[in-house]
Design goal:
Layout (H helix, E strand, L loop, with lengths): L2 H17 L5 E4 L5 E4 L8 E2 L5 H4 L14 H12 L3 H9 L2 H17 L3 H8 L6 H10 L7 E8 L5 E7 L9 E6 L8 E2 L10 H10 L1
Antiparallel strand pairs: 1-2, 1-3, 4-5, 5-6, 6-7
Helix pairs in contact: 3-4, 5-6, 6-7
């Protein structure tokens, strides 16, 4: 009997025996090979210990259900996973992480269609300034130029304004952010990124100059 076929028969016998909760016997065949059976297969038959359905369980035993984790737990796990914790990656996957991610992407896509710039970035820009990312954010940004768009702004104590911009030059995939500071009083160098002496009179000029570098 070929070795492959004999192995299959042995495994089949073991499987049937486990399901029937029977003892498994081991014997020596005339050709000297080992044979397993759920019946006494010869005068030298010996019981193989530890192979019963009580110890291994039947084929129809219900599988343990995986518990779905809360959104907060999933966010913590994915942060740990991104930091290199492989166990956290596994827990995130088994805890419903992929479904949660798809739901979040769907919500972000709808919010982006409604004009939410942050949701456009969240949904379409995780891989950098791709063509789709650039198109989406440029459509949603309230203020933008050919190579940049405004993300946020705040008023400074001295009366000036700090503008948070992000570069979006065509073909440039790297995410580059900068703060353009514009002083309150008008002037030829009131808006700058790094130093006042390198300033411009308007926000768009300073932003375009920085993103062109």
């Amino acid at each position: 009997m070929p070795l492959e076929l004999k192995c299959l028969l042995v495994l089949g016998c073991l499987s049937l025996a486990v399901q029937a909760d029977a003892q498994i016997y081991s014997c020596t065949a005339p050709d000297g090979t080992r044979v397993f059976s759920d019946e006494r297969c010869g005068p030298d038959a010996k019981i193989v210990p530890g192979i019963t359905s009580k110890k291994r369980g039947s084929a129809g035993s219900p599988k343990r259900e995986r518990s779905v984790k809360s959104p907060e737990e999933l966010e913590t796990l994915i942060a740990q996973c991104n930091a290199g914790d492989m166990k956290a990656c596994t827990e995130w996957t088994h805890g419903g992480g992929p479904n949660h991610l798809r739901e979040q992407e769907g919500k972000a896509a709808l919010a982006c269609e409604g004009g939410s710039l942050m949701d456009c970035e969240r949904r379409y820009c995780p891989d950098g300034m791709t063509d789709e990312c650039r198109t989406r954010v440029m459509q949603s940004a309230n203020v933008s130029g050919d190579t940049w768009y405004l993300r946020d702004q705040r008023t400074l104590q001295d009366g000036g304004t700090a503008y948070q911009i992000r570069c979006a030059a065509p073909g440039e995939r790297e995410i580059r952010d900068a703060t353009v500071t514009c002083a309150g009083p008008p002037g030829p160098k009131r808006c700058f990124v790094l130093a006042p002496q390198q300033g411009f009179s308007r926000l768009d000029q300073a932003a375009s100059s920085y993103c062109a570098e």
